[in-house]
Every structure is written in structure tokens, then in C-alpha cells.
Design brief:
Structural class: alpha+beta
Number of strands: 29
Number of helices: 16
Distance between the termini: 57 Å
Mean pLDDT: 83
Oligomer: single chain
Strand content: 15-25%
Length: about 725
Amino acid sequence: MGNFSIKEKYFKFILYIVVIGLINIVGITLFFRADLTKDKIYSLSQASQDVVETLSEPLSIKVFFSKDLPAPHNNTERYLRDLLEEYSAKSKKYFNYTFYNVTQEEGALTQKADTNRDMARDYGIQPVQIRIMENDEVKFKNAYMGLVILHGDLMEKIEAITSTNGLEYKVTTAIQKMNNKVSALLRLNEKVNITMYLSSSLNTIAPLIGLEQLPMLGKAVSDTIADLNSKSLGILQFKQMDISDKNKLDALGNKHDLMALSWPAIPEKNILEGSGAAGLVIEYKGNATTLPLITAMELPIIGTTYQMADPAALEEELNSIVEKLIGINKDIGFLWDHGAHSLMPDRMAMMQGRPGGGLQTFNKLVSSRYSIKPIGLKDGAIPDGLNCLIIARPTEKFTDYELFQIDQALMKGTNLAFFADAFNEIMPQQGQMGMPPSYEPIDTGLEKLFTHYGIKIKKAYVLDKQSYTHQAPKNMGGGEQNIYFAPMLKEKSINNTPGFMDNIKGLIAMQISPLELLQENIDADKVTATKLLSSSDESWLMEGMINLNPMFITPPKQKDEMKSYDLAYILSGTFTSYFKGKTIPQKEMGEKDITDEKTKIKGIAAEHTSLETSKPAQIFVLPCSSMLGDNMLDPEGRSTNSTFILNIIDHLNGEDKIAMLRSKQQTLNPIDQTTPFGRGIIKTFNIIVLPILVILFGLGVLAKRTSRKKKIANRFNA
């Protein structure tokens, strides 16, 4: 009996060992993680899964991350490891990653770490400075926190991974971009021509204009282009031109907008009269882009200063231009005429030391995923095949024929993104200093088009008590001052139901107008109207005489004088043409049209030249063009304002999965402001009431313990 018991114990022990061993083997070989977070921030998004699952060639990621970093950077490294493991699990066999030790250590690992740091620098990954707490002192430390993605000969890099926020989006879009680029490169049937116009005559005056390094520029640029060509499957064809003849330079300037320099003879310096130019012209299939190698800027007092392009930063700029020319991304249109916003700054204004304007940040963010095609309605029709046409604050009148072009683009399925303003701000002229700007209502003719589709912009500004505040200067009374014409749109005012709006919890608008949905103009069976944004219940309108001086704006005294206003809509469905049943407008004939008119054969007429019902399409209307401004968007695209704008563009281009991925980790959630009375109550509770409650609780516990001790003592004494 005893022997059987011993055998049974040995059997159970061995069985336990086997089971534990199997569990460990399963745990090592199988990767599994349960994500219980609300927004699934630790799970791979569907967009990321789709990207890695479609990999057809090996892709490798090299990660350079310093070891033993303090919080929160150590958490970033752990998150990155888990994220890359998720990618690897979904990609089957074409995705792999490696972490390289770049930390200087004692012993044998030192040489290996040195080699890894050299590798990181070769890939363009430089250490970043982080702040750490050591021995109760704030210190700064250099740390490597970057990665490179290699796909064939192509490379993308993320130089500084300082936060987990938006990291999955960066990695996924980088991989997607590389896939698109490989496909585009393989489709090319001709070379991209890069011509460097660099006049040797410039070397004589280079020291006089502060460009001593100019003689070495040609070699540096040539090496940069050769390096870029090796990473682009050899699609670049490079040549250098040395032109000093002024007439030829003037012709180049007119053709390619290439800036030329001219100078008189300077006998005391043995310098003859001459001229020269320095710039790159990138050409592909009739399209050309100019990249200056010398820029001039007019500064007050100082005068004209000259700057030479940095060869180290030139490769990234060139790569971006080449990608746009060969079309690795979807095409979207951007209206550039009719006084609309410009994507690029005014060079002349910048040379004169004035703000250049332009939607530079917006252009950079959108161009990273799309190929923006400038559309000029005065030049011709809107090209077919555009997923989206962006119209940003036009101020000039459209002809009926131009409105017809926009209407027909919608009928063909081109989505419209309309960023409008109700008023045109006119700044005071010279001699009128101190006068406030005036505001003229904008009427371009587009209003009747959108009214027909079912949306109307009111000629007013929305003012909101829940608005942006700033510190007023002392001469204006100091303290916090509400900018009522800059509403802060909180979670209650944002419709998070559409997937692309998910997790958008706080936005700031500026000089935004109310929208009116014209239900009578909308066929509910064919068109769905979705409200995206609205103001708070503490809003009112400024109309008629516009004065945006914060000192002269006061909220209404009566609560019933305030209400919520609609601020953004998206209409989806099949629309009816504004020109249905109407005579098709005639184009105003220019010189070319007059010539073509002479070649027409009389008696031939075309029929069915317009569409009366659209393909499935969408119209987005936001009466606030300032939300596209550089002061409202961040260059990294991390702010909720940037996320909102980019998500709208993605949605209109059928990229909802990417939009949802971008907003996945947006965490801005503005706290509801309380009244001064409410703040006083909370302060009193924390300072007085809460300590009293703690004391009373302690006294209650003490009394209970004392009573218990007395009962025990009485029992034993009895």
C-alpha cells in the first residue's frame, strides 16, 4: 500500500513537470496578448494588418534604442517591441526586425556598441537629448531612439521615437508609402531628369555675399543625387549646366522660375561684370519643379542676405519632389485661382521681410500621403479621376461656366472639400494705423451652388463663452481674456459616430460661421447629411457690423439669447446637378478659343454633354478656412486640429482605416470650465471640508476602538 502511494506521488510529480514544461513551450512559441483598453491602443489596427499582410518582398526594420532609459522612455521601448511583434505575427514571413545595442558599456560589448552607433549614423539616425532626474538633479542625456525601414533599395526612417503617441501610424504609413513607391518605380517607362544649373562665375562673388562654401556645392549636390539614385532603382538622370550668359539665364528664369544673380564690375576686387544662377530643375513627362540652391532674403536694416542650400538636407527635399512627379500617391486637386489660399508662401513677400502666407504646414502634411494637383478653373476643366477637390477660401467671382465645371466634377464622383469664410478681412491702408480691419461679405457664386445641394453659410461669426483664453497685457487690465471668436469645441460638440471622427475630443476654431441645413433642398432618399461639429449652448452670433476686438465683445446677459450652432457638415449620396434643365453655360473665349472657333464645322451640334445626376459623392463644408493655417496645425500632425483636417481628407479619399489609425491615440480631452462660484466651492471643500471629514472619520475609528476595549475589559473584570 505504501509502495503504491509512493509510485502515485512520483507519477503526479512527473506529470506536473511535463505539464509545466509544455505550458512554458507554448508560452515561448505562441505570442498572445489581450488588449482591454477602450480604444485598443495596444492592438494592431486593421489598416496596419492590411499593409503588412500584402507585403510581397522582405521588409526589415533596424531599431537603434539606448538601454536602461528612465521613464517614460523605457515604456516607449517596450511598446515598440510589442508593436513590432504584432506586425511580425500578422505578416507571415516578409517582416522582420532587429534591436541594436548602441549603449556604451564596460567590457566586450563596447566595440559592438560603437559599430552599431556608426551604423545608426550611416542611416541618418542621430542621438536626441532627453531630460532625466539623477540624484535629485535634472540632467540631460544623449540617447538613440530611432529606426529605419528597409524595403529593397528603399529606406524610410523615424529619427526620434520620444512617445508612443502616433507611433503605429508612422510605421504603417511609412511601409505603405514604400509599397506604393516600389509599384510606381516599376511602372516607370522613362527617366526623371535632374539638371543642375550652377554657374562657375558665381565663385568670384561668393565670398562677397557670405557664401564661401559655394565652390564645393556642385560636388556635394552631385554626390547627394547619386546616393538618392541608388535608392530609387536608378530612375534619375543627372546632368550639370554651367551658364553665365545673361540672355540665356533670363530665358531659363522665365521657363523654370530659376533665380539669377547679376553684378557690376568691381575693379578693386578684380571682378568683372557678370551673372549666374544656382538651382535644380527636376522634370518628368512634361512636368517640372525648380529647387533653388541659393536663396535671397531682404531684411530690414541689414538688407539683402543670401543663403546656400544645405546638401545634407537636400536629399529629403529631392526625394519628396521625385515622389510627387512620379505619382506614388493618390491625386487630389487644390483650387489655386479665384483668390483662394495658396499652398506655397509668397516668395517676393518673404524676400522683402514680410510674412509669406500660404498653407505650408497643411501642404506638408497632406503631401506626405497625397499628390496635390493645382487646379485653375480659368485655365481649363477639372481633370477626371480626382478623388477629391479642395476649395479653400476663394474670394473672387466664379463665372457660370466655372461653376458648371465644379458641378460636373461632383457629378462624376469627385468629392468636394469646401473651407469657406463668410467675410474677407481688409487690413487698414498706410496712413490708417490704429484703425481696425473691415470685413466685407464674400460672394463668389459658389453660394448658390451649395444652397442647391442643401447647405448654406450664414454671413455671421459664431461667438462662444467656451472659447480660447489668453493672458491679456498689463496695459489692458491683465488677467485671462476670452477670445470669444475662437470657440473651443469639446467632446459634446463633436460627433464621434463616423469612424474617421473617432477619438477627436477637442478642437479650436477661429472666426467660424454658422451653417444652415436646407432640408427642402435635400432628397432624403438619396443624400445623407451628417453634422460633425457644433458650438456649445453658450453661443451667439455677430452679424452686420463686425468688430473682433476682444475688449468690445461681451456675452449676452440672457441665457435664452444663446444657443448651439451647426459648424460643419458632410453630405453623402447622389446629387442632382444645379444645371439640370438649364442651358449649359458658355465658356468665355480666350485667344486660343477664338482660334479653335475658326476651325469648327458649321451645322454640327453635340448633345448629352452634361451629367444631371451624380455618381456616389460627398461634400464637406467647414466655414472656417483659418483651421488650415500654420498657426492651427502642427508640422508633425499630432494635434487634434491636424488629426481632424487630415482625417477629413482621408475620408474623402476612401482611406477611413488610415484616418481611424491616426486618431487612435489622440488624447486631448479638454476639461469643462467651471464658474468662479463653482471653483470656490471646490476649493473650500478641498481646504476645509475634506480635512474635517478625515478628522471626524479618525475620531470615529478611535471611539469605536475605545468602546471595544472597554467592553473586553468589562467582560474579563466581571
